[in-house]
Amino acid sequence: MSSTDITINRDVHHAHEEHDHHHDQNFFEKYIFSLDHKVIAKQYLFMGIIWAFIGGFLSILFRLQLGWPEATFTFLEPILGGWVENGKLNPEFYLALVTMHGTIMVFFVLTAGLSGTFSNFLIPLQVGARDMASGFMNMLSFWIFFIASVIMFWSLFLETGPAGGGWTVYPPLSALPEAIQGSGDGMTMWLISMALFIVSQLLGGVNYITTVINLRTRGMSMTKLPLTIWAFVLTAVLGLLAFPVLLSAALLLIFDRSFGTSFFLSDIYIAGQALTNTGGSAILFQHLFWFLGHPEVYIVILPAMGLVSEVIATNARKPIFGYRAMIGSLVGIAVLSFVVWAHHMFVTGMNPFLGSVFMFLTLIIAVPSAVKVFNWIATLWRGNIRFTSAMMFAIGFVSLFISGGLTGIILGNSALDIQLHDTYFVVAHFHLVMGAAAFFGMFCGVYHWFPKMFGRMMDEKLGFVHFWFTFISVYLVFMPMHYIGIAGFPRRYYNWTGFETFNIFTDMNTFISIAAILGFTAQFIFLFNFVYSIFRGRRATENPWHSNTLEWTTPVLPGHGNWPGEIPAVYRWPYDYSKPGAAEDYIPQTVPFSQTQSSNLPNEKDFE
Amino acid sequence: MITIAIGLSILLLLIILFLLFRIGTLTSIFRGSTERAAGTTKVSNRVNGTLLLLFLVLGGVAFAWSFADAWDDMNLPLGSLHGEWTDNLFWTTMIIIGIVFVITQVLLFLYSYKYQHKDDKRAYYYPHNNKLEIVWTMIPAVVMAILVFGGWQTWTKITSAAPEDAVVVEIVGKQFNWMVRYPGADGKLGVAKTTLIDATNEIGVDFSDPNAQDDIINPLQIHVPKGKPVLLKIRSRDVIHSVFMPHFRLKMDAVPGMPTKFWFVPTKTTNEMASETGNPDFKYELACAEICGRGHFAMRFVIVVDEPEEYEAWLASQTPFVEQNPQVLAKFQKEGATELVAEAKEEVE
């Protein structure tokens, strides 16, 4: 027996694969309780898309209210039932809509849908592994997420409504059912669902990190990893460190709500009587929440950054500019994201000295973010850009990230935050930089890796139409929101007509609502393209984008174990695009330097 | 009938769109563009490149126009001293980020347009340039340092301790309105406790406290003198609210169990503001900025900025709460008496 054979026999996954040849998996093993990372990734993707449409639909409902505050909404009665009272939306239901929109989009779509899909799909494929480190934990992670989803979805139909205290669920509002209906059963279900969600995230995160550290193929050193993997690994680390803090906050809140403790409650008089809770601190919850909450926005945006870096390099046919600086800035952002949380709390009465410290730390984070933007632009410079649908969304991502990120410099400044805190300026800022931008990253990823997921291509023309409608309406929705925010309009207002100061901009609000409806409608183009292409799309080739990374060396539809034979070894970094002297304008990672003598750089001669 | 007609026409529209999509797919197969590598077809690249450039130009124009058009509405009239500092800092920062915004967006779209795919061309292999990286790390770092310094100075001044002679106004939030208390002639607010709250004594003032005897509670509007420092003492009795006075560029949360404060100097009286804005009914308003429940959007209160002498006259015209509601005081005296008796008993025992 040759030595190669021994390696193969040692490979657990390979043995497993042989085992599969004997027993075909049944439907449940293959598609429902699957241990295959690719199937789990698709499950996350489908759930993410379903949730995105629900979350988007909720936002359309409250945009109707904001755009036409005087209108009667009797036509919504078939859907909303008792929440429409005499043609008017119930104000508490309005708050519940806002709350659920935020919760769904941040956690269920942009965390689970984005990280869950692409970390699961790409980590084993791009590092050269047969599957995740623990397939069973991976499956558990999805199904716990699924239970969390069911509970959250169920809470939408409660008679007292879902949670309504804002997605940040600040107590005492979220702790006292007397304060708002949604803090009754709706909030209980929110907390249970989120606790399960966190468990699911932790199971997933442990797996992602372990896989990247332990299961890289031969030659795949950390500095040969595609930026996507760097982004996913750092995201998983952030999640692992931050989510337990939210779990603790949620548990303490459960204690306060159900067992009479006073972690967050003190000196409260409500519904005609003084509560006995003393000594608690409502601000403590905010500290705990934002200790997760701020890393959370990076949990949302880092994977998008990774996907976009990869797509831009591939389609500009150029190496990503400053690969090491890109990794460095990812690490910088990840580390800094843990020490900036209190910039959400400048006006909570927190010690002003802390405000100064957090302002300083917050503005530092602008530096690595700026470096990333400059590097993406430098990657486009003198490229030979192929406008695929994925590339359009990647360019859109950079544009939105710039537009939304820059206003962060204003909001991170505590002196300026006094006026702008909790106004529409904040809403515009984070929707651009982490909402729309992360969505663009997700679309970019779906269009780009669809061929590897389903063996077929999505329709490019429909992709372009989808991109342009979405891109334009995102800007039409969120740019005017800045003006409204500068004028001081507070967020989470059912309407503004009661105030003389805010009794302007009614046309602008109608305009924003129309743009939002346009943007939401455009997503059905994507839905059609996605579903249609799964069944009827053009058949893909192994490497349709002429990309360098490992996943494109697998068959068109990679089976269980990903590579039919031995896992390929890696010899070079993933960004050898348009290398002078090379025959093609791309050299996959699996091509050894000995085969590319004409294009090797002086320092690469040693590896020949 | 109409619903069915609308439904049918939507269905028809969808079918037409689907047919168009199929025809498009077939023609692209017929033309052979599916044979080429994705993203290298000439027409679609040119269309997308041009659209990107158009988006930059038209979007830029639309943004500039709408910004200018909304300028008057978005700039709220300013009525406080520190508001001048923050407004200046805000617009200075806006100019800086505006410059970065224009440069980066122009480069992004311009490069995308300019370097679109050409069959005979190859991209320039340019993996890194450390000098460039250092330059564009340092520039934002320096700019940030300047901005942090400006922000820190302003923030420190705004959050410094209020002057001794500041006019004290207590604002207490509840679902869903604001309650206001002035300390009266002695300048001291009486002690308040949640447990003492009832229908009359809405903020739970302990009227056995001598400082509480002259407290003025729940005037119809907040009156403050122009040009004098005003210290807001902020509390909440149920959930978190936030005191937001947009014209004064002022915001501070009202947290149950944790009193907060904010001091400011109003610079224009309500009348001056009315003539300046040309709106005879101009009012300074107080809004709630932290989600607090069903009536969050309706927690409005009016602030009146007076000339100092007008303010004094207004203050003198207000009667203390205990004089308006003697029965409350009577209750406290009775309770106080029973407490005294109880204490005396304990001592005897």
UniProtKB/TrEMBL annotation, chain A:
Please indicate if the UniProt record lists Transmembrane as a keyword.
yes
Q: How does it sit in the membrane?
A: Multi-pass membrane protein
**Gene Ontology biological-process entries:** aerobic respiration; electron transport coupled proton transport; respiratory electron transport chain
One MF annotation (Gene Ontology) recorded for this entry: heme binding
Q: Per UniProt, what is one Pfam family of this protein? A: COX1
* Gene Ontology cellular component list: membrane
> Which cell locations does it reside in?
Membrane
User: Membrane-crossing residues?
Assistant: 44-66, 93-123, 135-157, 190-215, 227-255, 297-313, 325-347, 353-378, 390-412, 424-450, 462-490, 510-532
Organismal lineage: Bacteria, Pseudomonadati, Bacteroidota, Cytophagia, Cytophagales
> What is the protein's given name?
Cytochrome c oxidase subunit I
From TrEMBL, chain B:
Identify which top EC class this enzyme belongs to: translocase
- The EC number of this protein is 7.1.1.9
Q: What Pfam family is a match, any one?
A: COX2
Cofactor names from the entry are: Cu cation
The entry's cellular-component GO terms read: plasma membrane
Keyword terms: Copper, Electron transport, Membrane, Metal-binding, Respiratory chain, Translocase, Transmembrane, Transmembrane helix, Transport
Name the Gene Ontology biological process terms: ATP synthesis coupled electron transport
Give the UniProt subcellular location, in the record's own words: Cell membrane; Membrane
GO MF terms here are:
copper ion binding; cytochrome-c oxidase activity
Tell me how this protein sits in the membrane. Answer: Multi-pass membrane protein
Under SUPFAM superfamilies, the record lists:
Cupredoxins, Cytochrome c oxidase subunit II-like, transmembrane region
Q: Where is the Cytochrome oxidase subunit II copper A binding domain?
A: 164-317
* Domain Cytochrome oxidase subunit II transmembrane region profile as annotated: residue spans: 67-162
Q: What does this protein do?
A: Subunits I and II form the functional core of the enzyme complex. Electrons originating in cytochrome c are transferred via heme a and Cu(A) to the binuclear center formed by heme a3 and Cu(B).
Q: Which family does it belong to?
A: Belongs to the cytochrome c oxidase subunit 2 family.
Q: What is this protein called?
A: Cytochrome c oxidase subunit 2
Record organism: Pontibacter flavimaris
